[in-house]
Specification:
The protein has 89 residues and is mostly helical. Helix content is 74%, strand content 0%.
Length: 89
């Protein structure tokens, strides 16, 4: 009976870790896509680049990788904080 309980606890911990990893990875992909859009607009010379959405995503991602116990998975998987967008104008 104790063995089944231990297996169940380990399985739940593995599912939780996978869910956290998937969520952080999704946030990171969204940030990278948004960064590419902002960077492309800046290089093309478009004025008034709006980085508010990027900064919101970066803030959510950064708080997620700093929050316990998610920070354990983030550190083990190599997630690093996202830099904030600073409008050059």
């Amino acid at each position: 009976m104790n063995v089944l309980f231990t297996i169940a606890v380990l399985a739940l911990a593995a599912l939780w870790a996978l869910a956290v990893y998937s969520r952080l990875n999704r946030l990171r992909r969204q940030i990278l896509a948004e960064w590419k859009q902002l960077d492309g607009r800046e290089k093309s010379g478009e004025a008034n680049v709006d980085g508010a959405r990027y900064n919101q995503l970066a803030a959510a991602y950064n708080s997620a990788i700093e929050r316990f116990p998610d920070n354990i998975i983030a550190g083990a998987a190599g997630f690093r904080a996202a830099q904030r967008w600073a409008n050059p104008e």
